[in-house]
């Protein structure tokens, strides 16, 4: 059972992630690294939507597995894009390498916090 300490720790880690991404943009006066925030915030949505759209039947375990797999694929694509986008921008000299590193670390902290929040506060299904 997750409590108040879990919420406080997760919010602190989320704040550090956002701070790193914002600083990676503000310190070098280039706001392209802020695109990472959008990808990490949108990343859990396909998984959530597809898990609710699948509506598995009580009698069949494999019902809707294609929809769930598609949601996992899109979530994985968005997470990889959140890491690859700053690397691509740094490779094209649109942002600098320290901004890339700060953006990737901050983005991973943001996504890790979102996943941890979902794991800690997941409701049990009742039959």
TrEMBL record:
One of its GO terms (cellular component) is Vps55/Vps68 complex. Coiled coil: none annotated. Its main location: membrane. It comes from the Eukaryota. It is found in: Membrane. The chain crosses the membrane at residues 7-25, 70-89, 95-121. Keywords: Membrane, Transmembrane, Transmembrane helix. InterPro entries: Vps55/LEPROT. The keyword Transmembrane applies. One of its GO terms (biological process) is late endosome to vacuole transport via multivesicular body sorting pathway. It is a multi-pass membrane protein. Belongs to the OB-RGRP/VPS55 family. This is Vacuolar protein sorting 55. It comes from Lepidopterella palustris CBS 459.81. The lineage of its organism: Eukaryota, Fungi, Dikarya, Ascomycota, Pezizomycotina.
């Amino acid at each position: 059972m997750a409590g108040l300490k879990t919420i406080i720790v997760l919010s602190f880690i989320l704040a550090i992630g956002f701070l790193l991404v914002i600083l990676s943009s503000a310190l070098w006066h280039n706001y392209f690294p802020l695109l990472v925030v959008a990808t990490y915030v949108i990343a859990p949505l396909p998984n959530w939507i597809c898990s609710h759209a699948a509506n598995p039947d009580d009698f069949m375990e494999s019902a809707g597995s294609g929809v769930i797999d598609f949601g996992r694929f899109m979530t994985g694509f968005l997470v990889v894009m959140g890491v690859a986008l700053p690397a691509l921008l740094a490779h094209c000299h649109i942002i600098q390498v320290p901004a890339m590193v700060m953006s990737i670390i901050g983005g991973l902290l943001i996504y890790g916090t979102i996943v941890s929040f979902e794991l800690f506060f997941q409701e049990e299904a009742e039959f």
